[in-house]
Amino acid sequence: MNRLAVSMLTGVAALGIIFSVQAADLIISEPAPPVGIVDVGGNWDGVYVGAFAGYGWGTLTEEDGVFAPSDTDYEIAGWQVGVAAGANFTVSEAIVAGIVADIAWADIGGSNDDFAPLEYNINWLGSVRGRLGFDGGAFLPYVTAGLAFANNTIDLDAGLDEDTQTHIGWTVGAGVEFAVADNVSLDLLYRYSDYGSKSYELNGGVSDFGLATHTISAGVNFRF
After folding, report:
1. Which of 130, 117, 202, 136 is nearest to 165 (CA)?
2. CA dihedral sign, ordered 16, 21, 25, 30
3. How many CB atoms are located within 10 Å of the residue 150 CB?
4. Is the model's pLDDT at 157 over the cut of 60?
5. How far apart are CA 132 and CA 176, in angstroms?
6. Would you say 198 and 60 are in contact if contact means Cβ atoms under 8 Å apart?
7. What ranges do the domains of the chain cover?
8. Matching CATH number, 46-223, of 2.10.220.10, 1.10.260.40, 3.30.2420.10, 2.40.160.20
9. What is the tens place of the pLDDT at every residue in 46-85?
10. What is the pTM of this model?
11. What is the DSSP letter of 19?
């Protein structure tokens, strides 16, 4: 390449740089967002639905002493899987309130033949609760409380007689949600529930049984 060509290329390159700098001075543009980073925090308002699974344990307590001594506790344990629906709304810069209802199919029970041979099992659980949380951006720690329901069956002597009752009581708990996308979050929750007592009639005997559980669950919520 001769000197003239080199000089011309050098001149063109220099002019291009000059014009580029001048053009940049005239254009005001916003910086491009970082590639691969998605803002998923601070957007908890709205309706959501979800599904969850978990484990439960607790006690079924005979209160009257018909089938066992008064205040005998029978231990129960097992799994639950369910669905939930709710809504959140911001009440201040960092506080998020909400309401949620859930229902779970369950197999939380046990058996005991120390006194009368009894089998017992929670068939389903449900609740209607309020929630109050702190908006931490991509995470939402919260406390919750409300009404709780449990459908329980007691079986005497392997099918001799059985009775099913639905208990109604209260529940309290705490959890945290983690946002994993703009409209998807993971929910971890612990709850204590006292379902109160109900009268069961078994083979002519009637006794009040109290029911209480601890449950832990993990779920996924989809916000709209």
Report:
1. 202
2. positive
3. 28
4. yes
5. 11
6. no
7. 46-223
8. 2.40.160.20
9. 999 999 999 999 999 999 989 999 999 999 999 999 999 9
10. 0.79
11. H
